[in-house]
Design a protein that fits this description.
Layout: H1 4-7, H2 18-72, H3 82-100
Helix pairs in contact: 2-3
Length: 104
Amino acid sequence: MRSISQIFKDNEHLMDLGPVEELIEYTQELEGQVMETKVNDSYDKEHVLKSMLSDILLSCQEYEENKLLQERYPDQYEKIDSDTLVNSLMGYIVEMNVKNNLGL
């Protein structure tokens, strides 16, 4: 994208005209809004991804704890199927990707 000074490089005297000055100010405001939106969008996606990673880590830790308990007390804890866990995690990731437009 070209800057305002690049656009008026050979005709700088046009920048002093009232309507052109208004257009330049309006353009600068829009540029600021676009940058602010990009920053907020990046922050929101980063927050969602951190939350997802935290949820996945918690699920994996619970799986490991339950696996140890099942090995130690096989009569009290039923065996956890790792395939089911992986399928659930994949479904969660796909759902969050679609819901939050993460582009994964």
